Sequence to fold (109 residues):
Amino acid sequence: MKAAPARPDIPSLIEEAFGAGTRYPTPERFTELDKLLKEEIERLKPIVQRIADSSAHRSRDWYAAVNAIDEADYALTLDVATTPIAGGMRVAELARLVRALRKVGGIQP
Fold:
């Protein structure tokens, strides 16, 4: 039986993504960071959606959850960027969204 691949260390991934604008990873690494961060966003969205569904409509918690999901949905539609500046900005934004979803979802950093 094939073992499931290990999940990446998310805090390290976030740190790497925030530093990508000054350390300029290879295009292949930008692609990998983009993929891993988008996978984490997809994993977190249902958790945050449950919080939105269980929160009072238009409450602070509801708005925080809905806004985090909306921002994440938009970011997931964007293609990977592999040039140094665009790639650094894109993966940093994905990392910011992962942090926002984790915060709303009550997941420790």
Summary: The first helix runs from residue 10 to 23. Residues 29-104 form one domain. The CA atoms of residues 24 and 53 lie 40 Å apart. The mean pLDDT is 91.
